Amino acid sequence: MTTRDRVLARIRRATAQAPDAPPVPRDYLRVHATRTPAETTDLLAAHLAEYRAKVHRTDEAGLPALLARLLSASRTVLVPPALPPHWLSASDATPVPDHAASTPHELDAVSSVVTGCALAIAETGTIVLDGGPDQGRRRITLIPDHHVCVVRVPAQVVDSVPQALDRLDPARPLTWISGPSATSDIELDRVEGVHGPRTLDVVLLDTPAQ
User: Fold this and answer.
1) Nearest 5°: phi and psi at 6?
2) What is the per-residue pLDDT across 135-191, written as a single tens digit (0 to 9) for each?
3) What is the pTM of this model?
4) Cα–Cα distance for residue pair 96/22, rounded to 1 Å
5) Contact 81, 136 (CB under 8 A)
6) Is the distance from CB of 185 to CB of 191 less than 8 angstroms?
7) Using an 8 Å Cβ cutoff, are 193 and 180 in contact?
8) For the stretch 88-112, what's the b/e string if a residue is b when 16 or more beta carbons lie within 10 angstroms of its beta carbon?
9) Type and span of the H or E element at 86
10) Does domain 38-206 have CATH number 3.40.50.300?
């Protein structure tokens, strides 16, 4: 039995006889305005920019050329298993498959990573990854210094966090991203790239509803 197993067993024993928790009221606003899909996307783009993410817009035809430009300074690019192959068809960066055996040192040597996402939240400027096939394992988006994330709009954009929670699976490894990784010291000097990518490019991919 591992230490984790022992801790969880103690929690189960301690809570086995606990009374049922009272219901949590859900009377808060689920969304703070009425918006068209275009207005929701514009709000997402504005909030992403406030967080110092670099926002780009394109359609399927223009995506390969845009990704090639964003990766022009990259020697290598991490590729999740189900990333659409044509996305990187115009890029000169050498693709690196997402291998479970890759060490942090090997991942740190990769220039960039390109992923899709689970969804994006307009009111908070947040992108959520859930480890899906076009996103790969969590660590491939945390170690490389440059993350390019493609968000299909309007299908993957919601207005609010409550709406996002309705669509996300809590059993999956969720990563919530609001801009590039950053922190501040006691003097409020901002430092980027401390515990995640220093540069976040977000591509809003215009994908008409099927």
Assistant:
1) -65, -40
2) 999 999 999 999 999 999 999 999 999 999 999 999 999 999 987 766 666 666 666
3) 0.84
4) 49
5) yes
6) yes
7) yes
8) beebebeebebeeebeeeebeebbb
9) none
10) no
